[in-house]
Fold this sequence. Notes:
Blueprint: H1 7-39, H2 50-78, H3 83-115, H4 123-146, H5 153-190, H6 201-224, H7 239-247, H8 260-277
Helix pairs in contact: 1-2, 1-6, 2-3, 2-5, 2-6, 3-4, 4-5, 5-6, 5-8, 7-8
The protein binds protoporphyrin IX containing FE (2 copies).
Amino acid sequence: MKGGAAPASNKAAMDARTLVAHVLAVAAIVLVLLWCIHFRGGLALRSQDKPLIFNVHPVLMVLGPIVLAGEAILSYRSLPLARDARKKVHLALHAAGLAGGVLGVYAVFKFHVESGIPNLYSLHSWVGIATVTLYGLQWTAGFLTYFFPGASPTTRRRTLPWHAVFGLLIFVLAVGTAQLGFLEKLTFMQGQPLRLPKYGAEALLINFTAVVVLLLGVAVVLATVNIDGTREGELPQRQRRERSCMDGQPGGKGGASAVAAPSRCMDERVEEEPRRRGRRGKRW
Ligand code: HEM
Ligand code: HEM
């Protein structure tokens, strides 16, 4: 569907994509908890049973930089709130996602140190450190630029498309890192001494959880990019202006690079809003 669709169907299509992402987010958390609690004996940050400390890692890494980050990204279009409130929700959910990620990485380092296992020897751990570091940098840059103290309207306008694209890339990186983590853990467990059956219930559950996490990543990206101009339907009162704005994109209406399109349109509001409000306030 290209830009000529009716606003109501655009809104319905976007709501459906967002709903799919919410359902997959809940499923991912339920599955990873089922695995770590039912099959692996539970979670603990302090225990003589060291694998319980490890179990905190997958749960918090799925909850933080994936589920909460995904909800934060979707919050701009899924919540029926004023813009400022949505911005605070976006910021707070990302803060919670980052805290979960940092605590999850702390847990796996603690498990390694207390079990005499070397640190940072795997591709998963290298990409994982990069992901959490980039997530922290993105949060700090977003906070300083759009919240406090806030950059000038021109800087906000110029940086917003980059913020959106880098934000999605970091989210995708987190999903990829989790895939490596699930694969690595299952491969360890299928070797000595556990010799987990290759087609057993636990192996299937781990692989299935990884598939759900992957689908969640796809759903969040599809709900965020302006693939068919559905973003236009989000704010019907602004539809005409956003439509003409998107038409001005080099790729035309919609298209794969469209995550930047809404931002560019909204960037115009960065400058328009303070004028409308009659003060020199910040837009983002
Ligand atoms: C965004 C998601 C994730 C990130 C950023 C991440 C990050 C990390 C980091 C930095 C380490 C290194 C710890 C050390 O060297 O002491 C690590 C280890 C590990 N992670 Fe993850 N992780 C993620 C998700 C997962 C998931 C979902 C699993 C699934 C079980 C997992 C399984 C493991 C395993 C088995 C190790 C120990 C072996 C190794 O160091 O590679 N990770 N993770
Ligand atoms: C690591 C943390 C963050 C990530 C991964 C991230 C990611 C994103 C993404 C993907 C978008 C595009 C959403 C869309 O087009 O619907 C976005 C938009 C935005 N983000 Fe963030 N963000 C982060 C932190 C922050 C922070 C701390 C702020 C400060 C308030 C912020 C402010 C904004 C604003 C103002 C928008 C524009 C919303 C719009 O499209 O209308 N972000 N962010």
